[in-house]
Amino acid sequence: MKARAIRNLPIRQPDHRGFSEGGRLILFLLGLALPFLLYVHFSSLKIKGEYKMSSLVYQRNRLRRKHEKLLLERESLLNPRKTLEVAAKKLNMVDEGPPLVMDEDPFSARDSAKGGDR
Asked: 98-112: string of b/e by CB count within 10 Å (b at 16+)?
C-alpha cells in the first residue's frame, strides 16, 4: 500500500464548545426576553385589576342609588298622609271626613222633649 494513495485527512471531532456557546446564546436571549415577558404579564394583571375595580365602583354606585331610592320610599311610606292615600287606593277605604262638632248634647234634647229627668 502506498501511503500517498490514502488520503490522510484529519477526522473531525465533535466540538463541545458549540453546545456551551449555544447555551450561552439561549441564556442571553432569554435574559433579553424575560424582562419584556414579565412586563407584559404584570401589565395584563394590572389592567385586569383595574377592570375589576371599575366594575366594583359601578356596582357600589348602583347599590348607593338603590339605597337612596329605598330610603325615600320608606320615608314616603312612613308619612301618615301617604299611608292614608295608599289605604284608600289599595284597600278601598273611605276617608271618614272631619269630625262633627255639636254644641248640644243630643241626649239632653231628647230627654227634655219627653218632659223631665229620669
From this structure: eeeeeeeeeeeeeee
**Tens digits of per-residue pLDDT, 44-67?**
999 999 999 999 999 999 999 999
The rounded distance, in Å, linking the Cα atoms of 41 and 48 is 11
DSSP reduced 3-state for 12: coil
Closest by Cα among 17, 37, 36 to 25? 17
Residues 6+ apart with CB under 8 A from 97: none
> Residue 86 contacts by C-beta under 8 Å, 6 or more apart in sequence?
77
State the residue for C-alpha cell 435574559.
31
d(CA 32, CA 25): 11
Claim: this prediction has a pTM higher than 0.85: no
Give the amino acid at 112. Answer: S
